[in-house]
Amino acid sequence: MTENSERRVVSVIVINEASVLSRITDLFSGRGYNITSLTVAPIPESKYSRLTIVTSGSVRVIEQITKQLHKLIPVLRVYEHADMVEKEVAMIKFPASENLSDIQALCEAYNGKIVNAGENTIIAMVADEPKRINNFLKAIKRYNPKEIVRSGAVALER
Amino acid sequence: MQISGAQMVIEAFIAEGVDTVFGYPGGAIMNVYDEIYKQDKFQHILNRHEQASVHAAEGYAKASGKVGVAMITSGPGFTNAVTGLADAYMDSIPLVVVSGQVPMSLIGTDAFQEIDAVGISRSCTKHNYLVTDAKDLPRILKEAFYIARTGRPGPVHVDIPKDVTAQIEEFDYDIELDLETYKPHTKGNPRQIKKAMEAIAKAKRPLFYLGGGIINANAAYEVREFVHKSGIPAVETFMARGVLSHDDELLVGMLGMHGSYASNMAMSETDLVIGLGVRFDDRVTGKLSEFAKNAEVIHVDIDPASISKLVNANYPIVGDVKNVVVDMLAQIEKIDSDNYESWRETINNFDELHPLTFHEDSERLKPQWVIQRVGELLGDDANISTDVGQHQMWSGQFYPFTRPRQFVSSSGLGTMGFGFPAAIGVKAACPEKTSINFTGDGSILMNVQELMTAVEKKIPVINIILNNNFLGMVRQWQTLFYDKRHSETDLSVQPDFVKLSEAFGGIGYRVHTKEEFDAALKDAVEKNVVAFIEVIVHRMENVMPMVPAGGSLFNMMLLEKKESK
User: Fold this and answer.
1) Site from A21, A51, A71, A78 to mutate, B interface, most B CB atoms within 10 angstroms
2) CA B178 to CA B488: how far, in whole Å?
3) Residue in B119, B181, B304 nearest the CB of A73
4) Is B118's CB within 8 Å of A19's CB?
5) Phi, psi angle pair for B168, to nearest 5°
């Protein structure tokens, strides 16, 4: 219980079929573990999908969960990432009255730009490491963001 | 061949060599039952509760080594079966359980007898399927049997909506399975095996730790050869009873919470644990940090998730235990059995100090005597099932098992009510052996309706009810750890078990003495009908030795030495 909690990123390649997602998330919920973020999308030209799961918990329990993930019949492969490139997308809606060029400059520092400008609002998008996304979201607070959405992380082993 | 989904189920069973199906009909599964009516390739045994159908299929699977099959309807039929699925999952028993479901058009509408069956069974099966198109049915059924019996075996649940069982499609069962994501690792890594054998050769006090996986893998006779050629002593888990014969000189005994003193001490003193088909269950290890504290660990298991789950393995070997043991036997010359002479002597001394025994009582029969006596009278001729509680532990301790698959019990889940239906399944699989169910006055009432099943199908199970008028194991814990507050465990108000059996068409005996017991057992075996033998036993007998939950294996509560009079 007192074991140290650690942030872990796990990718899972699964057959793209009904119920596969709940099979995977059940392994976490059954142990009282929270999933911080989860992204799923089909792998092009295959019958598989790739899930990227960000979670935190004791090393021992996470290891056990990944072993149990392997055991699920529709799971092809599980990667416990150690050395990876990790990216996340965030979209932020601002009132159109905010300073556009300031926001534009900030976005550029975080691999982003303004992707939509309307009558009342503008939408900006950035793509970066989750940690840097956190920093970006702090930095833009003073421009009164109305809505923020994060995609959850995706990762590739180097 | 164009046939209905219901006929496909029948054809698949026949192709898989199924000879017995346990089940209970109902609305959503009626199309399949209609096909059962029309065929004569396998027998159907009508249990009187769906839970019992699954337990019977488990008993059948454990005794025969084949996949057990149960069939149930949707809604309550399915939810009743869940305990059986969970039980089979915990004990790695290969089952295919087919359930009916409301028609596809009604799924999700809170239809009559609708429940999200695959949602419920997901966490207590090895795999499950909701069949949405009869075109998929041949493949799914073939996969279900394959997945159930391969790798670490387990129950597979197939949920079939009623309209899918009516749908007519092409049936071809002669298909190649393409399970790209499911490839059990059956061959042990040769380098790891070599290292493990070298570790055994170097060890001074090695100990075999034998588990139920050996029985699942049909590896008991290979393991016997390994034990005998190496001269290394062995302890068995409750699940492994019968891997070695009870009279094997190298068998120390059963270990764990109610293991023998010598077994638990041997495990505490060993310098190399050779774990075969085990999973380091908490009832076996006691306090983990003190378990085999000074030992290295070899762990052979088909399930990679079992290895280093609880105890770190220095020599992890993923593979079918039979293959691995055969590979190890090929290098047996590395091991000199003379090296372990003094270690064997140490263990013998442990056993002489506190042998596994009990004290007779002049007034009432002791439950342990009953079990031992059945062993003397029937021995190898009987297959043994048990329910859950004190009688279960005494069966593990005192019955003289001689062969694998002789013993069937709900080990992992600890399901009261398991024993009687399981014994029906065992008898269906092995009609030539006497099928005994050791049970208690608490457990027997949890599936007592199976009297009807057994009587109807003339399946002569002998239930030996060790009646102490208590929910004995819980009473024991209350006596020891709750200052004798026997909360809701006094079962003094009881049915007349003799009349109960007779009411269903069985026979019944109530016995108080050794002579009465011998006569009743002899009579029941001769009459070869369904029987209850109610044995009035000592009320306050405790299962000893005992490692209190969470305690270290070497800190056992022991049987008090009898004062010499």
Assistant:
1) A71
2) 53
3) B181
4) yes
5) -105, 125
Catalytic-labelled residue, pool B197, B446, B473, B556: B473
> A30 to chain B: which residues are within 8 Å by CB?
123
Assign residue A98 the CATH number of its domain: 3.30.70.1150
Active site residue B50: yes
What tens digit of pLDDT does each residue of B121-152 get?
999 999 999 999 999 999 999 999 999 999 99
Mean pLDDT calculated for residue range B86-90: 98
Find chain A residues with C-beta within 8 A of B305's C-beta. Answer: 64, 67-68, 70-71
Domains of chain B and CATH, by start: 2-170 (3.40.50.970), 190-353 (3.40.50.1220), 367-536 (3.40.50.970)
CA-based nearest residue in chain B for residue A66: B305
Cα A2 → chain centroid: 27
Q: Is the pLDDT of residue B363 over 80?
A: yes
| pLDDT tens column, A120-141 | 999 999 999 999 999 999 999 9
Q: How many domains does chain A have?
A: 2
Are A76 and A110 within one domain?
Answer: no
Does the beta carbon of A22 lie under 8 angstroms from any beta carbon of chain B? yes
Indicate the residue among A26, A57, A82 that finishes a domain: A82
- Read off the CATH number of the domain in which A9 is found: 3.30.70.260
> Which entry of B104, B113, B195, B287 is annotated as an active-site residue?
B113
Q: Same domain, yes or no, for A10 and A76?
A: yes
Same domain membership, residue A94 and residue A54: no
Between A and B, how many CB-CB pairs are < 8 A? 33
Cβ neighbours of residue B481 under 8 Å, at least 6 residues apart? B548
pLDDT at A3 over 80: no
Residues of chain B neighbouring A15 (CB-CB closer than 8 A)? 181
User: What's the pLDDT band for B359 if we cut at 50, 70, 90?
Assistant: very high
Regarding whether A112 and A47 lie in a shared domain, the answer is no
Q: Provide DSSP, B339-376.
A: GGHHHHHHHHHHHHHS-S-----SSSB-HHHHHHHHHH
Q: Are residues A71 and A123 in the same domain?
A: no
Q: Which residue in B62, B142, B162, B427 is the catalytic one?
A: B162
Question: Tell me: the pLDDT tens digits for B188-225?
Answer: 999 999 999 999 999 999 999 999 999 999 999 999 99
- Cα nearest neighbour of A68 on chain B: B305
Residue with token string 């790798």:
B151
For B185, which residue in chain A has the nearest alpha carbon? Answer: A71
Q: Name the percent of chain B lying above pLDDT 90.
A: 97
Domain that holds residue A47: 5-82
Burial of residue B220, with CB atoms counted within 10 A of its CB: 0-12 exposed, 13-18 middle, 19 or more buried? buried
* A77 and A97 both lie in a single domain: no
At A33, the pLDDT band (50, 70, 90 cuts) reads confident
Residue B112 annotated to the active site: yes
CB distance B527 to B536 below 8 Å: no
Among residues B386, B369, B380, B354, the alpha carbon closest in space to that of B259 is found at: B354
Q: Does B565 have pLDDT greater than 50? A: no
Whether A100 and A144 share a structural domain: yes
Same-domain pairing of A71 and A89: no
User: What confidence tier does B161 reach under pLDDT thresholds 50, 70, 90?
Assistant: very high
**Separation in Å, CA of A158 to nearest CA in chain B:** 24
Helix intervals (H) in B48-124: 50-64, 76-90, 117-121
Distance from CA of A33 to the nearest CA of B (A): 16
Task: Write down which residue in A60, A82, A104 finishes a domain.
Answer: A82
pLDDT digits (tens, 9 = 90+) for B439-450: 999 999 999 999
Residues paired with residue A121 on neighbouring β-strands, in sequence order? A95
CA B371 to chain centre: 18
Cα–Cα dist B455/A94, whole Å: 77
Distance from CA of B300 to the nearest CA of A (A): 16
Residues of chain B with Cβ-Cβ distance to A19 below 8 Å are 118, 122, 130
